[in-house]
Amino acid sequence: MTFWAGQRVLVTGGRGFLGSHVVRKLRDKGCAAVFDAPHADYDLRERDEVIRLYRDTQPTLVIHLAAVVGGIGANRERPGEFFYDNLMMGAHLFHEAWKAAVPKFVGIGTICAYPKFTPVPFREDHLWDGYPEETNAPYGLAKKMLLVQSQAYRDQYGYNSLFLLPVNLYGPGDNFDPRSSHVIPALILKCLDAVDRRADRIEVWGDGSATREFLYVEDAADAILFASERYNSSDPVNLGSGEEISIKELAGKVAAAAGFTGRIAWDTSKPNGQPRRKLDTTRAEERFGFRARTTFDDGLRRTVDWYLKQRVAGVSS
């Protein structure tokens, strides 16, 4: 609490899925000020807008969560947008933070930065061993440039910054827009819509063999705050739960949680994405004491319950 009491924290993307949880936790810690920088007020792709943002907020700590994100479909449809927007936001925010003498910058990367055939579990030392999975490589590489920038600016200028690599996130507040949602909200939406229509089947991309690891959003927010307070290195750090699950098993769990009892049909003409994802999370525990607390089954139940309440209330995510 002593650390946070004097901090003026700027959270880009602070009104988004992960950002809203981070902002709430920061306010609970009694920060001197917390700014969530709405996109409507500042276009973070534009250098002058970033300079204005820093002038307006005068932060002592920046947590950069803003990103253009989406599932496999969105990444395939908009690769140029995913590359340019994420690259420009990261480069401008980082550079202007250094120029403005902001004491610390926390950059959030993505598991999509890892090579397509990374040995499992993914260790941070594997980041440069190959090209990312093709369907989301532009996004993954754009975000990975924050790591390059962090290490370069630390080497040349002694600038204090971090680079964190969260695995796929899920939880209350997730994006349930079918045009851009990730796999868990997309499956929840498919199953609940099928229940409403009394349909006897849903269709899912791929063959179900790919595996993923998921981190509950509350745990991810805790990890970011732990790192912000306790970690001062440009060595990249994985943030994950340590639980690996196949997409086929995931679909079954989501169907059960949503009350869908019909058949799951696999569209094998669509891509699986990266074959396996599971992180080695040793570094996070050793360097700033983070270990995920929420089991996948508990997190999924909370996510489905939250979304059901949104549907009943007529609130779209």
Summarize the structure in words:
With 317 residues, this protein is of the alpha/beta class. Helix content is 44%, strand content 15%. It has eleven helices and eleven strands. The protein has helices at residues 2-5, 17-28, 47-57, 72-77, 79-99, 137-157, 183-197, 217-230, 247-258, 282-288, 296-313, and strands at residues 8-12, 33-35, 61-64, 104-108, 161-166, 168-170, 201-205, 211-216, 237-239, 244-246, 263-267. The strands form three sheets. Strands 2-1-3-4-5-9 form a six-stranded parallel β-sheet, sandwiched between helices. The protein has a three-stranded mixed β-sheet with strand order 6-8-10. A two-stranded parallel sheet has the order 7-11. Strand 1 (8-12), helix 2 (17-28) and strand 2 (33-35) form a beta-alpha-beta unit. Helix 2 (17-28) crosses helix 8 (217-230) and helix 7 packs across helix 9.
Question: What structural category do the secondary elements indicate?
Answer: alpha/beta
Radius of gyration: 19 Å
Helix content: 40-55%
Major sheet attributes: 6 strands, parallel
In the sheet with the most strands, the strands line up as 2-1-3-4-5-9
What is the approximate shape?
globular
The CA-CA distance between the termini, in Å, is 32 Å
Query: What is the number of helical segments per DSSP (H or I, 4+ residues)?
Result: 11
Strand content: 15-25%
- The total strand number stands at 11
Low-confidence stretches: none
What number is the mean pLDDT? 94
- Encode the helix/strand succession as letters: HEHEHEHHEHEEHEEHEEHEHH
